[in-house]
Amino acid sequence: QVQLVESGGGLVQAGGSLRLSCAASGSIFRINVMGWYRQAPGKQRELVAAITHFGTTNYADSVKGRFTISRDNAKNTVYLQMNSLKPEDTAVYYCNANAAAYGSIWPVESWGQGTQVTVSS
After folding, report:
1. Could you read off the pLDDT of 3-30 as tens digits, one per residue?
2. pLDDT over 90 at 103, yes or no
3. For the residues of 64-101, what is the DSSP string, one character each?
4. CA angle 25, 64, 120 (to 5 degrees)
5. What are the Cα distances from residue 114, in Å, to 4, 15, 36, 45, 101?
6. Which residues contact 12 (CB under 8 A, 6 or more apart)?
């Protein structure tokens, strides 16, 4: 019911920047929360940042001050601006959305396919 398409990953040197985008489509009434998670090899998936429909944000301690999450509600799109990247930020980054969808009584949770971010030292 809700599809997420991510873009913007890639290879960057330590100290560099990347911007991830995630566009949602489908039978969307309203997206309640959009967020970014990441999973490094051999590690569990972890929350990086999330933002509510009204703009309230939440960040992992490891990215505070370096990453900024934002969203465009009109476009159902969320962005993650990543600055001062470190090698430990290397992971597959996944977009997540919790949405009220037409035809569904309960909120729908969706995941993107993931985009690789690699930070070289």
Report:
1. 999 999 999 999 999 999 999 999 998 9
2. no
3. TTTEEEEEEGGGTEEEEEE-S--GGG-EEEEEEEEEEE
4. 85
5. 10, 22, 10, 12, 22
6. 18, 85, 117, 118, 119, 120
